[in-house]
Amino acid sequence: MFKSFLSLMLGAAVLREASAAPVHFQSGEKQVALLELYTSEGCSSCPPAEAWLSTLKDSPDLWKTFAPVAFHVDYWDSLGWKDARSSPLFTDRQRSYAELWRSENVYTPCFVLNGDEWRSWMVRRGVPGPGGDDVGALIVSSADENHWSVTFVPAKPSDEKYEIHAALLAGGSDSDVKAGENRGRHLHHEFAALDLIQIGLTTRNGAVQGKFLLDASKHAGETSLALTAWVTRAGEIKPVQATGGWLILPAVQK
Q: I need a labelling partner for 21 at 20 to 30 A (CA). Which of 35, 101, 109, 244 fits?
């Protein structure tokens, strides 16, 4: 009986391992823009920004010239409605940008493009393309969508230290807000950050490498799931290069 049970468990483990297809995301040499949105379900000004961000889901440039992520901050949570996607970690990240910009306040909705405040989203259909300079290729891969490997090859080799940042993103999620500024509204979210990691990388022979853990399987119930990853110089918040892609493809709109 025990041997049969053990064989069954081992078989299930092999099946789970086999069902996780290898994932490989890679940028080109030119910089892929990191587009961040700081938002909240408690902010009445945020739905138009999230609606605009949602239109980028079908952009042919998605993951090729830009990689998005929506961070739901928590400083609205005490004002009538708690955003289920909010995190103090995301608020801290926005405050780090405010310090960089020497701004005394944070606000929503706030778009950040490659580390700079970006207000032109309201008059644009898409995200500005990458600059003309080569910055190097970033490769992020996983055999099981849990253990991830990183390789970054800077265009100009140096002994600089780098860090990898990565966020799992949920899409196709909806919320019926019952209190606060958006009371009675039905909100739709794309590219909403679920987890965020930051890990130091090792530079050796001109290549920057490292590993991190970020378990996508615990979010398998999401309508769609993606990963955005970006590399920075150690101790800095501005991205050098970014990449990403779908882990669970969004449903095709009919």
A: 35
Q: Where are the alpha helices (DSSP H) in the chain?
A: 2-19, 46-55, 88-100
* Predicted pLDDT of residue 122: 84
Residue 99 CB coordination number (10 Å): 10
At residue 245, the 3 state secondary structure works out as strand
Strands 33-39 and 66-72, bridge-based pairing: parallel
What the block records as the tokens of 136 is 């190097």
Nearest to 188 by CA among 175, 178, 201, 179: 175
- Lookup: tokens for 168: 């799992």
Specify the DSSP element, H or E, that contains 250: none
Q: Read off the pLDDT of residues 72-87 as tens digits, 9 standing for 90 and up.
A: 999 999 999 999 999 9
Q: Which one-letter amino acid corresponds to residue 222?
A: E
Query: What CA–CA distances, in Å, run from 206 to 130, 203, 220?
Result: 23, 7, 36
pLDDT tops 50 at residue 12 = no
